[in-house]
Amino acid sequence: MDGRNAHSVSALLSDFSVRINDLEERIKLMHDRVSILDQTMLKQNDRLLKEIKSIKDDIFNLKGKMDKFEDASKHLIAESAEFARKEELAVFDKFMKTWEPMNFATIDDVKEMLNEHSKKRKSKDKIIPVEE
Q: How far apart are CA 71 and CA 67, in angstroms?
């Protein structure tokens, strides 16, 4: 080999070595990026798992509250069956206005009226002498 060929082979080997070093550096950078992405994905996965657990707990609590609400509404519906309806109250009000129970006398009132009546009668029954 002559000097020019040796120099050309040496330049090719040098260029090849530089390219291999560049490729090794790129591979190392890609490996670092993949490692960072892997860590990020693991953190995201952990965060998502915690969020899913929190949502499941919230759903469980909501189901419990819904069950309580359903029980309470069933109880209210059962209780409301015993309430008077608006129409029934209107009929009752009309009846009470017609009947006017506030005008009725109590037993004590009747006794007092009888006593007063008997006193008036006794005073009328007394004979007052007439002067002639």
A: 6
Cβ contact 43:35 at 8 Å:
no
Instruction: List the structure tokens of 125.
Output: 């029954």
- The DSSP string of 16-72 is HHHHHHHHHHHHHHHHHHHHHHHHHHHHHHHHHHHHHHHHHHHHHHHHHHHHHHHHH
Helix (H) or strand (E) holding 107: helix 107-125
Place of tokens 């007063």: 116
Q: Which of 113, 95, 97 is nearest to 105 (CA)?
A: 113
Q: Give the Å distances, CA to CA, from 46 to 19, 21, 53, 86.
A: 40, 37, 11, 59
> For 57, how many CA atoms within 13 A lie in the half-sphere containing its CB?
6
pTM score: 0.47
Q: What are the angstrom distances between the C-alpha of 51 and each of 31, 54, 62, 63? A: 30, 5, 16, 18
**Identity of residue 10:** S
What is the model's pLDDT at position 83?
A: 83
List of the chain residues with pLDDT < 50: none
